[in-house]
């Protein structure tokens, strides 16, 4: 299984989660919300084979962007994965819209000529995130937990980007409607743990099987064939990297 978006550092027991992923062979990309969080976690996870840590600057931490942005630039060379980054124009984030845009543009400018895989937050700002990716010639990106308009999906897909789905999406009507519009060759899986719950507990990478089961029924395929397809999608994505750090 492959978890392209999991906040390992925010679990009560992050090393236990990382060890479980390693033991079960679950490829897991650990998001961070700030470069300082990346620096704290990097030394603990750098020796893992299946777990990688992404460098992030979350849009909802805008009050810390000015302080943290130099750390983002400083750590770019340490990983091939970037996240969680993006824009949030929901009620929660709209007040800091201009700060977010300024930070996002600086991040994309720093990444423009580098081979990195981005995991993107785009709540209520899906169109703007896509426009900036195209403007800065970003090639490798995943729209994490997409919740935007169905009409924008074809343009995201045509631009060569992927979309990751989670257990919350397969349980909601809006999430299911989005998944049904996604071509199978652009879908990846994510837990977004620990922000989603499974039977009262934070979802873990090992819970991704329910997504595979949902997709198998939707596509009228075996779960094994679905997992092979997800694996193929991820391998195609990382094949664009000259070296996965």
Descriptive tags:
alpha/beta; globular; 245 residues; five-stranded parallel sheet; 10 helices
What layout of secondary structure does this protein have?
Blueprint (H helix, E strand, L loop, with lengths): L1 E5 L7 H11 L2 E4 L4 H11 L5 E3 L11 H11 L5 E6 L10 H15 L5 E5 L4 H10 L5 E4 L8 H6 L3 E4 L1 H5 L1 H9 L5 E3 L7 E2 L2 E2 L6 H11 L3 H16 L7
Helix pairs in contact: 2-3, 3-4, 9-10
Protein model, in words:
By secondary structure, the protein is of the alpha/beta class. The protein has one domain: Alpha-Beta Barrel (TIM Barrel), CATH 3.20.20.140. It has helices at residues 14-24, 35-45, 65-75, 97-111, 126-135, 153-158, 167-171, 173-181, 209-219, 223-238; strands at residues 2-6, 27-30, 51-53, 81-86, 117-121, 141-144, 162-165, 187-189, 197-198, 201-202. It has a 5-stranded parallel β-sheet. The protein has a 3-stranded parallel β-sheet with strand order 1-2-3. Strands 9-10 form a two-stranded antiparallel ribbon. β4, α4 (97-111) and β5 form a beta-alpha-beta unit. α2 (35-45) packs parallel to α3, α3 runs parallel beside α4 and α9 crosses α10. The two termini are 20 Å apart. The model has no long low-confidence stretch (mean pLDDT 95).
Shape type: globular
Largest sheet: 5 strands, parallel
How far is the first residue's CA from the last residue's CA? Answer: 20 Å
Structural class by secondary-structure content: alpha/beta
Unreliable spans: none
Strand order of the largest sheet: 4-5-6-7-8
CATH classification, class level:
Alpha Beta
The assigned CATH architecture is: Alpha-Beta Barrel
Element-level helix/strand string:
EHEHEHEHEHEHEHHEEEHH
- Integer count of domains: 1
Helix segment tally: 10
Measured on Cα atoms, how large is the radius of gyration?
A: 17 Å
């Amino acid at each position: 299984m492959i978890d392209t978006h999991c906040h390992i550092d925010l679990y009560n027991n992050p090393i236990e989660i990382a060890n479980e992923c390693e033991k079960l062979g679950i490829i897991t990309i650990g998001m961070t919300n700030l470069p300082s969080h990346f620096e704290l976690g990097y030394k603990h996870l750098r020796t893992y084979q299946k777990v990688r840590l992404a460098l992030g600057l979350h849009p909802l931490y805008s009050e810390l962007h000015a302080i943290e942005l130099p750390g983002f630039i400083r750590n770019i060379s340490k990983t091939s994965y970037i996240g969680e980054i993006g824009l949030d124009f929901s009620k929660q984030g709209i007040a800091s819209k201009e700060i977010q845009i300024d930070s996002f543009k600086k991040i994309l400018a720093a990444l423009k000529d580098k081979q990195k895989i981005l995991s993107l937050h785009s709540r209520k700002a899906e169109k703007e995130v896509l426009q900036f990716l195209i403007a800065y010639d970003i090639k490798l990106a995943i729209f994490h937990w997409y919740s935007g308009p169905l009409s924008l999906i074809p343009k995201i897909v045509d631009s060569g980007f992927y979309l990751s789905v989670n257990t919350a999406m397969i349980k909601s009507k809006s999430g299911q409607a989005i998944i049904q519009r996604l071509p199978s060759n652009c879908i990846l899986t994510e837990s977004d743990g620990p922000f989603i719950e499974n039977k009262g507990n934070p979802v873990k990478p090992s819970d991704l099987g329910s997504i595979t089961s949902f997709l198998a029924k939707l596509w009228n395929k075996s779960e094994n064939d679905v997992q092979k397809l997800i694996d193929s999608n991820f391998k195609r994505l990382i094949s664009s990297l000259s070296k996965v750090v």
